[in-house]
Amino acid sequence: MAETIISTDNLVKEYGELKAVNQLNLAIKKGEVYGLLGPNGAGKTTTILMLLGLTEPTSGTAQIKGFDATRDSIAIKRFTGYLPDQVGFYSQRTGRENLVYTAGLNGISAVEAAKKAVEVVELVGLTNVIDNKVKTYSKGMRQRLGLADVLIKEPEIIILDEPTIGIDPTGINEFLTLIRGLSKEQGITIMLSSHLLNQVQKICDRVGIFVKGSLLAEGSIEELAAELLAQKEIDLSVKVKDLSDQVIKKISALDEVIKVEKQENLLDEIYQYYFTGGEIDARL
Ligand SMILES: Nc1ncnc2c1ncn2[C@@H]1O[C@H](COP(=O)(O)OP(=O)(O)OP(=O)(O)O)[C@@H](O)[C@H]1O
């Protein structure tokens, strides 16, 4: 069994009356891709900031590789890369210049940084544009450059906060594949936050469902689905405009759908679908 590399113990963060993070206990294993899944405001960013020692817990502790996040944050930064949701680059400088500059800030010599920059841009697929100014990069390319910026430090752990926001669908798939590859091919432990289940389920070994500062459930997507949905019929009501009989027929034909029932009133039409779980939303 792999060792625990990221952990929190009854971690709490309060902002006045608000409990942004409430008695959080996490244990993330070395080499895992772990997804913190929750809606906006659930406390994901606050948790990440506490893990990195960038904000102090109200109570409880956060540790990475046995180092306390509050007391030993400098040690943690040496082996942990952090990709925030908005990565700041000098837009008038090229990708290469930005990488070499931040590598210098991390104590890497100019010669070494120049060499490593070539390696990491190859890994993230930016070789062709590395000498273009960052202002010409798309959001997806900026995220890749952000990842290159993190990789240049050769981290053992990478923490990403909502890494796919603003990227187009093709870019999202490529970026997620890249992240998964880093974990599986290089053994890097990945923790990422997201509010999008379909993205988290694509790449994460385990997922923690985080709502209003608390972890509601945790496990692989298969375990969570089994636990939450097994043998349960879900009654789903959807308000729609101009839904044709043909679409209703198609929905009825899905394996998961037990019954489709149309209800009408004067103001709107409500369609109810009964299904046993699974990927109905993705397939609609
Ligand atoms: N510095 C702060 N001062 C006061 N309240 C804060 C502060 N930072 C976060 N909060 C509040 O704490 C709660 C959790 O915020 P957090 O940013 O951690 O959520 P999140 O899950 O990352 O959501 P999002 O994706 O929207 O950032 C929110 O209600 C937020 O308004």
From TrEMBL:
Domain ABC transporter stretches: 6-237
GO molecular function annotation: ATP binding; ATP hydrolysis activity
A Pfam family reported for this protein in Swiss-Prot or TrEMBL: ABC_tran
Sorted UniProt keywords: ATP-binding, Nucleotide-binding, Transport
InterPro entries: AAA+_ATPase, ABC_transporter-like_ATP-bd, ABC_transporter-like_CS, P-loop_NTPase
PANTHER family per the UniProt record, alphabetical: ABC TRANSPORTER, ATP-BINDING PROTEIN (PTHR43335)
Family of the protein in this entry: Belongs to the ABC transporter superfamily.
Descriptive protein name: ABC-2 type transport system ATP-binding protein
Taxonomic source organism: Halanaerobium salsuginis
